[in-house]
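User: quick one - fold this with alpha-D-galactopyranose bound?
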Amino acid sequence: MTAPRTPKIPYGGDYNPEQWPQPVQDDDHRLFTRARIDTLTVGVFSWSLTQPAPDTYDFTFLDGILDRAAAENRRVCLATGTAALPPWLARRHPDVNRTDFEGRRHRYGQRHNFCPSSPAYREHATALAARLAERYAHHPALLAWHINNEYGGTCYCDLCAEAFRHWLRDRYSTLDALNDAWWTAFWSHRYTDFAEIEPPNALTEHWRGPDHTAFQGITLDYFRFTTDALLGCFLAEKEAIRAHDPDTPVTTNFMGMFRPLDYHRWAPHLDFASWDSYPPLDAPPTWPALAHDLMRGLKGGAPFWLMEQTPSTTACRDVNPLRRPGELRLATFQAIAHGADAALYFQMRASRGACEKYHGAVIGHAGRDDTRVFREVSALGAELEALGDATLGARTPARTALLFDWDSWWALEISDGPSRLVRYQEVVHSYYRAAREAGADVDVVPVTADLTAYDVVLAPALYMVKGDIAARLEAVAERGGTVLATFLSGRVDEHDRAFLADVPGPLAPLMGVRVDEWDSRPGEFVQPVSMGDFEAEARLVFEIVQPRGAEPVGSYGTDFYAGTPAVTRHAYGKGEGWYVATALDRPGVDRIVRRILARHDLLGPCADRPTVETATRVAPDGTRLLFLLNHAPEPARFTAHATGTDLLTGKRVEKGEQLTLDPLGTLVLRIQ
Ligand code: GLA
Ligand code: ZN
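Assistant: Sure. Structure tokens for the protein plus alpha-D-galactopyranose:
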């Protein structure tokens, strides 16, 4: 099953009329019509209303919302509402509350607050999902199911401890296998009974904090267990829905690059992926783009939904800058360029009270339709209406893949040594950014993905090598492709045990190098790396490389390893394996990635202007759509490299013509 079929990009977002007296809904719908809003995400936090007491369900309000939406020709993405517990449930079954990392047993409060292993939670949540599905499966407004909300968080209660032990029994069968995987002969940890195993937290293996563990193997397994435990909650609700509604697509809203959950383990169970984009302050445009591409990669390149973004400002951070005029439009077209088939907001109307009252909304507290934000939202609504179905179902014809691996992310960041300063996302982003700014479309995929369609595979910080990925990377190079790996790759197996081999372990034959030693230094220390006519700067970790077939491309400038290779290239089969043994600066990474892309003729038409982003999507009928996005606050002038029609203005563009993109402007060219 795929995303819901719609005649245009669904436009709208989280809508909570349960917070308001009825007449406000009239105003809402009047304003929605004005802004071309056609899709409402409903019921995300309404459990205490739909089930006010253990034996009482009350759907009057929800009936009203859905009926009204249908009468207004709007569709509803209906949430099961199980992400925030009703107070009565927590009082009646205290075990639905979580126990935190410090071992504190929580009492009622907050949201995203349930224990994934609590039978009472599971039972009540699935019962609610079943009732909702029974009631609304055939409602004309129903477009999609939105299970729970932003699954996340970890629980360390006794129920979770017991569930973890079961999970471990399933995974390892025997204690011998577990002891071997976790290397428990170290520090006298040999377990003689599953009952001795404790969840890894501040009271047990993590005295020095969440990323400091005495046993990476235990901690990694708890990440995996938590991923599976929350997935179990999702699956139970999905099954309850499917019993009444076999057809309506089901999703849950992810959070992009969200470390705690391995979304690749979830992906097969979603009908379509969706996510909430709230880029960090001052993030470059390639940061949300990387998350979009990661989300598109979850379902093999199928379009995803942008389930939430703010129309203006967030409220959850210490400082919450506004989106400047034009930035919302640009961010929305960027999402579409990367595969979004829906553009939804959090939130439609600002809450009057509680912690999100200052969060940006399409409609503010005064209910006005003449604010800047409302005007921009409406203008965008009109553009998306005009765009119709042109982009729906379109896929990205990428020939470059970037491997993204949660296991590597976890293992790298909970490691003692070589350096706590290396951040997985930053290494991955540096290579992603270089490829995107050079104009390559990039699929961000799991290590299990089929790599046969790619000319270039980037594998930055592939710390953990598991399954047959090393052989499949070799196959890419065999047939003429290029594979790039970096420092801190090929270090550990799936249990975080070091390979008993030269670094980079199973990647060594492809890379043609051997690493025996590595030096790590404080962030301010700079090691010059010379690459022929070009000098880059390197930081953090310096692996000392001995070529075993590879040729040096760059070498370190100082210290006892001065003159030894920092970057190498290895001819392998008809292709190449590149190894970058240190954290190079941006010009250094650009240089290498561009050389690789050039070898495969993958440099884009705007490769010389990093602030103009290009992305291609191919519609189901074969039509090629080229997105040009100007991320700079100045106009961008360039020569059109193809003939086509701009879908946003209807203007025809001739190849060779001088084009000007407005500041923060977008062009969607249907190529002829
Ligand atoms: C998340 C949640 C929403 C809301 C927004 C605020 O994405 O899903 O309920 O809290 O954050 O940014
Ligand atoms: Zn628990």
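One thing worth noting: The chain has a mean pLDDT of 98.
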